[in-house]
Amino acid sequence: MANRLLGVISALPEELAHLSDRPGDVHEIGGLGFWRGEIAGREAVFVESGAGKVNAGVATSLLLDRFECRALLLCGVAGGLDPALGVGDVVIGTSNTQHDYGVQKEESFRAIQPGSRPSLGQDWTPGYPVPEVVIGRLRQELRDLVLEALPEAVGVGRRVPVIHFGDILSGDIFVNSETVRRRLRAEFNAQAVEMEGGAVAQVARRWGADIPFVNVRCLSDLAGVESHLDFRAFLPVAARYASLVAHRLAPVI
Length: 253
What we know:
Layout lengths: L5 E5 L2 H4 L10 E3 L2 E8 L2 E7 L4 H13 L5 E10 L9 E9 L3 E3 L4 E3 L16 E2 L2 H10 L21 E8 L7 H11 L3 E3 L2 H11 L5 E9 L5 H23 L4
Parallel strand pairs: 1-4, 1-5, 5-12, 6-10, 10-11
Antiparallel strand pairs: 2-3, 3-4, 5-11, 6-9, 6-12, 7-8
Helix pairs in contact: 2-5
């Protein structure tokens, strides 16, 4: 755990702003800036990957190869899929699944595990589950964490965000559609959707099953027809709430 160098990834500067507790010299590799710092007393390498699966995959590969990180934390915002969740709630991924990789037929699309070859009899069930032993550590660490009420300016009342564990979807699309939100929820029974986690999980698995990866997401919107408006308005606040949870978890990843 703490003796492993931690790689910390966020797609956007607003998401990364609250994570590093100590500044460091930035080293540019492949157009990305990396620096060594600390999060909750743990040494880490930080990088702003940019949005999308390819960007996240490149950043993850460099963290694992150039910096020899052997634990990964992805932190940021996401759209909510589960109608029981609200803006400000935090979802910690128990599995990370790419919802837009698969087989497109005339009337349907079937998601499969990236790189799998069903024609050769390979398992094509999509998703990268987080080991139960890791989930257990995370749950234990968060057992007494209560988040502060949302600011009035957010516009959803003084509700207190709740921390959830559940599946998180990733794809190279920003979901701005109630129809797509409902389809993804029905097909995957996931709680949130974003654009990077499934790629980080895929690359981490390539390096070895013993590399823990934790995905922390605060819901900035509910992935519906107004998600583009909610996202812009709530991004800074949601990023701060995700960071609070990430700080609690960083020492045990």
